[in-house]
Amino acid sequence: MSTDLQIALAMAKIENQKLPRDKRKNKKELLVSVGYATKTAEKQPSRELESKGVKDAIRAMGLTEELITDALVNDIKEKAKNRLGEMRLGAEILGMNDNENKGGKILIINVSGETSKRNTLPATRGPENSST
């Protein structure tokens, strides 16, 4: 169960994301704006923002993992040729962009020529397959 402070932080977090990037509050400012102590906001803002209570409050407002994934999948399916933005968002949600936690590994995907043509991707050859 979320505390009143966590509910206020969840609402502030959502409102903050709606603002243009240059107008958004940083983590410390966000926490202090809803009533957290400055010391807490300076030392552990991520811990508070990612707490179970804040996540539960966001889910209670209707923003669930299922909603996000369903909308993203539908968007990807409807835009078969121009999906880069949606694919990047999906990768971010799934944590695929977080190379720090994965030891800096790079994900390489092989796409067949037929799939490449169907999705209008440029066909390239890797260095091991090139004739030079």
How would you describe this protein?
The protein has helices at residues 4-18, 27-34, 38-43, 45-49, 52-60, 65-78, 84-93, 113-118. The longest helix has 15 residues, at 4-18. The termini are far apart. It has two domains: 4-60, no CATH class; 65-103, no CATH class. Helix 1 crosses helix 5 (52-60). The chain is built from eight helices and no strands. With 132 residues, the protein is mainly α.
Q: How do the helices and strands line up, and which of them pair or pack?
A:
Elements: H1 4-18, H2 27-34, H3 38-43, H4 45-49, H5 52-60, H6 65-78, H7 84-93, H8 113-118
Helix pairs in contact: 1-2, 1-5, 6-7
Low-confidence stretches: none
- DSSP helix fraction: 55-70%
- Sheet/helix structural class: mainly alpha
The H-and-E topology, N to C, reads as HHHHHHHH
* N-to-C span: 62 Å
Number of helices: 8
As a percent range, the share of strand residues is: under 5%
Number of domains: 2
**Main beta sheet, described?**
none
Shape: elongated
Round the Cα radius of gyration to an integer and report it: 20 Å
Global mean pLDDT: 79
Please tally the β strands and state the result.
0
Give a nutshell description of this structure.
By secondary structure, this protein is mostly helical.
